[in-house]
Amino acid sequence: MTVLFTVLSLSVLATVLAGLVSLADFRLNNYGVCTIDINDGARQLEVKGGSSLLSSLASQKVFIPSACGGKATCGLCKVTMVESAGPVLPTEEPFISEEEREAGVRLACQLKVKHDLKIKIPEELFNIKQYRTRVSEIVQLTHDIKQFRFELLEPQTIDFKAGQYVQIDSKPYDKVKEAVSRAYSISSVPSEKNIVELIIRLVPGGICTTFMHEHVNEGDEITFAGPFGDFYLRDGADELVFIAGGSGLAPIRSLVLDILEKNLDKKMKFFFGAVRRRDLYYVDFFRELEEKYENFEYIPALSGAAPEDEWDGETGLITDVVARHVPDGVNRQAYLCGSPGMINACVQVLTKIGFDRSAIFFDEF
Amino acid sequence: MGSAPAISPMVIFLASIFTSNMVLSNFLGMCSFISVSSEYKTASGLGKAVLLVMVFTTVFNWLIYHYIMIPLGLDYLRYLIFIIVIAATVQIIEMFMDRYLTDLHMKLGIFLPLITVNCAILGISLFMIIRSYSFLQTLLFGIGSGLGWWLAIAALAAIREKMAGNELPPGLAGPAITFIITGIMALAFVGFSGIFVVM
Lengths: 365, 199
Hints:
Order of helices and strands of chain A: HEEHEHEEEEEEEHEEHEHEEHEHE
Strand content of chain B: under 5%
Distance between the termini of chain B: 16 Å
Number of strands of chain A: 17
Helix content of chain B: over 70%
Shape of chain A: globular
Number of helices of chain B: 9
Oligomer: heterodimer
Number of domains of chain A: 3
Strand content of chain A: 25-35%
Strand order of the largest sheet of chain A: 9-8-11-6-7-10
Distance between the termini of chain A: 60 Å
Radius of gyration of chain A: 24 Å
Helix content of chain A: 25-40%
Shape of chain B: globular
Largest interface: A-B, 20 and 19 residues
């Protein structure tokens, strides 16, 4: 009897308390409808207050780039507040410099919409849409890299600059209950407007890469938002140095093909670094390009070639290989895509060779 | 439980700050004490948040204990019920602060969920039951314990900040030296004993 009474009274108490918390949530977290004014009236959105600025904007189809999905670890979702929306939160501090703070820059994922806001975002973000697509082809390029070809359903065309990326929405699977959004560079050319190709490496424990590799099949529907990113071709040099590792080949492929298609008068050298022969892919593709176009040179390098790889190409760390082939930074630009470690090392080597820091562009997630 | 002890609430207030300080005499609330005490500003912020939560939770728990639990004979469930009440109270405090005290919420808000599991919070609720405090005694006990915890963590952070530039023998840096400092502080606080006798 006591047992029954105990269970009953605890349940009642817990229910009452839960009810109180819900009531408080309803009364206190209810911020009503708030107006967000973007770029001095260019767009005015009406959103339900209480959520982060990032998700409120996304719910109205204005997509701010975000690689971490709102956890304040990537720092990509910066927006400028025209009127102050309170002090910078401790979670935002590592990402916002002193000057940015004075200019009113905040992280959209940390700012909660509680009242009307006036914000400024870069113009290109308006071009960003959400795309509904169908996976039309999956190709296994290496033991851990797959290429996905997406046929655009709605909208049917995409307008992007070679080198930009899209953010894929994964779906819950197995033990993973959350849907996440992760960024991947486009490897297809901008001239092909109805499809998008992505090259994705399976990251051990990665939520989205595991989803793409193990739970997506040809014919499935995937949504992504884009295009994002400011990794694209700039004017200012006649010779271009491309350096990539792993799945970093994706934006470089897009850039190289785009430049060749547009017949831009640029001399290009593409350095691709891998460890073993099995990590290389698209080797024949780029060798053919090299033969067809005299202004394109392809230099793959293995840093840990084993005897059975039978490798007679360049060996060593990609930074050493670049140093051997690039004499100086005169009239040259460098475009890098790979792991933060690789990028740091390459930036150091390139500046030592004589590249101006402003002539080096990179994409690191 | 017995009737309220005949001790002045003011004495209880002062005692809970100095002679029976929650963290330095009773060694409760140690995890956040050790981990969040490297910077004075954050430590002080956490101290204020702990004070806030302590006051509200002791009061609510006292009311629930005397008006719901005793009449229904649910005394044996006090651990469970107090913890549930603490969790709900912290949630509501956080929402209230976010809405009406936004500036304060910006500074303290991130600490609030951390405090729910601070054992000092549950500790003072249980103490006031064991010692059969009256409502006024409980209120001042809560405020005093909060102030005492704040004083202790602020002092510890100030000491650690002052020591920040110094070189320590390897292995002692971090939690190790913090424990040693805490022990020495506790020893110092023993010097207060006898001034206010509550235990």
